[in-house]
Every structure is written in C-alpha cells, then in structure tokens.
Amino acid sequence: MRCSHSASSSIISNMKRNLVLSILFCCSLVVAAQKVVYLPTHDSDTTRQERVGRYGEIYDITHPRLDLYLPAASSEPRMALLVCPGGAYEYVSVSNEGRAVAQWAMQHNIVVAVLKYRLPAGREDVPLEDAQAAMLMLRDSAEQWHIDQQRIGVMGFSAGGHLAGSLLTKYASAQSRPDFGVLIYPVLSMQDDTHKKTRRLLLGEDFTPQQVARWDLKRSVDKNTPPCFIAACQDDKAVPVSNSVDFYTALTRVGVSAELLIMPTGGHGWGFEREIPQTALFRQALLQWLSELR
Questions:
Q1: Whole-angstrom Cα distance, residue 174 to residue 289?
Q2: Are 41 and 62 in contact (CB under 8 A)?
Q3: In this structure, are residues 204 and 97 in contact, taking their beta carbons and an 8 Å threshold?
Q4: pLDDT tens digit string along 43-77?
Q5: Distance CA 19, CA 284 (A)
Q6: Beta strands of the chain (E only): which ranges?
Q7: Rounded to two decimals, what is the model's pTM?
Q8: Domains in the chain, ordered, with CATH?
Q9: What H or E segment, with its residue span, contains residue 93?
C-alpha cells in the first residue's frame, strides 16, 4: 500500500506529537511521584550552605534526605533501590546518577530512593551513617511504600559506589544490610589505583595506612556480603577497572554470588543519562540480574 505525500506527512506529524506526549507523560510520572524524606542526623554542619551547580549537582549538603520515586500503585510489594550518586565525595550528582535512574527503574516497577548524603569534609564516617539511616528508613516504611522487605538493594556510582560498597561490607545491623548491591564504575580501592580526589576528600590530606586499610573495601568482603552486580569500562581513565575486578575477585573467593560486566569502551560517568555504545547491553544485563534475585 502507498500513502500520498500529504497523508504521510500527517502520519509522521501525529507520530511526533504522540512521541512528545509520551515523553512528557513519562517525565510527569517521575516528578509527580517524588517525595522528599529527611533522615535523622546528630552531626549537621550548619556553617556550610547547600548549593546547586550548573548541572544540578549538590554541594555542601547539611540535611541528608531521600528523594523517593514510587511507581504506580501496585497490590504486590516491589523491589527497591537506594541510589547513591557519585561526585568524588565533593558533590552529589543527582541528575545523571539519580533522577535518570528513577526514570528507568519506574518503568520496571522498581521503587527508587535517591540519597542526598552529607559529604565527608574530614568526617569519614558521615556518608556511611546517612546510607545506614536511609536503609533503615526503607525497611521501616516498606509496608507504606509497598516495598518487598527481601529485595531492598543499594546502587552506587563512582564515589557513590564506594559509599554503596561501604554499606554492603560495613552495615551496622541486619536491618541496615542491603539484600544486594549494584556498583557502577565504582571507587572501591584506597590503594594507588584509587580515584585520588575521592580518597583525599574522604580521608583528608594526611591520611594514615590504617584509614587506607579501613576503607579499601575488598578487605572488608566476607561470606555475609550481599550478592553484587558490578559494571565498568576498560577505558575508564578516572577510576581504574582494577577497582571492580579486585572487588569481584574478593567476592568470589568467599563464595558470594556476583556478576562482573567489563565493557571495552565508555569511559567514566555515563550513568543513566548519557548513552555509550554498550548502554543497551548494560541495561539488559542489569535487568536480567535483578529479575533473577531471590
């Protein structure tokens, strides 16, 4: 069958209009579903003033909180992800590694809580304290937010991957222990193959060997560490891929279930907003891994 030029133009115009409406509808779902939940803290630094950078990144967070994204109402409890954006422990990258994650996850009926955590600034325990409080909040509110108590995981990017990895290996109680972890181009080492700025902002200028050992996360892996999915690119110039490989090796050595996806190209910081050649592969592999969790 052939269409006239005017008919074809009309069809294309309608398709474009419907596509725009669909995109706007999806975006409105994310915005409408968002709630802000403040976390308890006993160590707010009120001398700092929170500010937002040109790309939406947040500096000097004084009041830790969750941006909560809930999919459409469901009678069945859903998986939940506590998302820790990166930013070298200098800022929190809430767009590419936060809101964009929620937009993807909600399409798959996954609850997302984006953690806006306090930055260390010489207080190395502070980000982990916020992550532990956030996990407790998700567990305490599971019934209210229709979350499956057995499927609450943590996802982290870059320095946020270090925070997520810290929660996976240094949880304070059974309630604050995630059920699984997703680590994306993560900083997991504090040795020479670390991201130097992340180490400096976490540990300070004059860090000690004891601090390095404490926060070098492969050393903290044991048989009780939750299962993990790890993804990184071989050509990552910011965070050497050895961070991911060594952590994966530590997991498998003690019998923890883990999947490691090393992609040849893509660099660092691609998150869920920026496309790389392997975006489809990464998302498909992650979704498959999540679907197989028990």
A1: 23
A2: no
A3: no
A4: 655 567 889 988 889 999 999 999 999 998 777 89
A5: 23
A6: 34-38, 51-52, 58-59, 65-69, 78-84, 91-92, 111-116, 147-157, 180-184, 228-233, 258-263
A7: 0.87
A8: 15-291 (3.40.50.1820)
A9: none
